[in-house]
Specification:
By secondary structure, the protein is of the alpha/beta class. The protein has one domain: Metallo-dependent phosphatases (Purple Acid Phosphatase, chain A, domain 2), CATH 3.60.21. The chain has helices at about 20-35, 65-75, 95-100, 130-140, 140-150, 150-170, 180, 185-195; strands spanning about 5, 40-45, 80, 100-105, 105-110, 115-120, 200-205, 210-215, 220-225, 230-235, 240-245. The strands form 2 sheets. Strands 4-3-2-1-10-11 form a 6-stranded mixed β-sheet. It has a 5-stranded mixed β-sheet with strand order 5-6-7-9-8, with helices on one face. The longest helix has 17 residues, at about 20-35. The protein is globular, with a radius of gyration of 18 Å. The two termini are about 30 Å apart.
Length: about 270
């Protein structure tokens, strides 16, 4: 019974395809997971471009995606959802209405005889002090309370404006920066030193699909990539992890990189 992992759908913003088309592809992928007999599905953050829950309202849209997840959990397959930096203000809506298991920080799970560290990845590792300070503010209960006072029309417009501005200022996610420049590699190495039994460190957030062997020679840091351009996901089957690119005509096709190269590893 395989276990599937994906992250960074960023539903609500157009990219290579429209958000609606990407949502349909995510739903097709979820159907594939169920058809393959998924033991569990892990959705590792930034499912939405922005998410906020008012007392009597939630963001418009995403009915295909949310309905499919509810159908899966109603059928008895657990779906684990991690908050990301774009949807860190999730509260209890997806838990109570859709039936997911919600995680707000990285977790260690033992699956198929392997030990996995799983998290979205934002604010981890060295550097990025500006974002870490901002996240502390946004995590504060008073910040959520103040934002909830805004009318949803204004609040959503503001959120998407600042999200667009932030995305425009980010470099292209096309190159592996080496172990010195990849903060999640550094974080994974640090956690591996603390827990030598770790087999996989699985994150999103970085947006570049990466499969990197850590310094002990067998543990791996895997970044799930994103669905704005890559549409990549991870399949754990018999304890073996494979980074794949979603293609309905060949759903188990290994990810080969944007230019056809092998997934990034220590030998590259």
């Amino acid at each position: 019974m395989p276990i599937f992992f994906a992250s960074d759908f960023h539903l609500g913003v157009d990219a290579r395809t429209t958000s609606r088309e990407r949502e349909r592809e995510v739903v097709r992928w979820l159907d594939h997971c169920v058809a393959e007999g998924a033991e569990a599905i892990y959705l590792v953050g930034d499912l939405f471009e922005f998410w906020f829950e008012w007392r009597w309202a939630v963001p418009r849209g995403y009915v295909r995606f949310l309905g499919k997840v509810a159908e899966i959990t109603d059928g008895g397959t657990p779906v684990h959802v991690f908050t990301g930096n774009h949807d860190l203000w999730m509260e209890d809506y997806l838990v109570e209405e859709v039936g997911v298991v919600l995680h707000r920080s990285p977790v260690v799970h033992h699956l198929q005889g392997r030990e996995l560290l799983i998290g979205h990845g934002d604010g981890l590792g060295p550097g990025d002090h500006k974002y870490k300070r901002m996240k502390k503010v946004m995590d504060a209960s008073w910040a959520k309370w103040l934002y909830a006072r805004l009318h949803p029309n204004l609040a959503m417009r503001m959120a998407h404006f600042f999200s667009h501005q932030s995305r425009e200022g980010q470099p292209s996610e096309e190159e592996f920066r080496g172990p010195e420049g990849e903060w999640l590699v550094a974080y994974s190495e640090r956690k591996l030193a603390q827990r030598p039994s770790l087999d996989y460190c699985i994150f999103g957030h970085r947006h570049l699909p990466i499969d990197y062997t850590l310094s002990n020679g067998h543990s791996r840091y895997i970044n799930l990539g994103e669905w704005l351009n890559y549409s990549t996901y991870l399949r754990l089957d018999g304890g073996q992890a494979r980074l794949l690119r979603w293609d309905p005509s060949a759903p188990d096709r290994s990810y080969r990189g944007a230019a056809g190269q092998e997934p990034i590893n220590r030998s590259s």
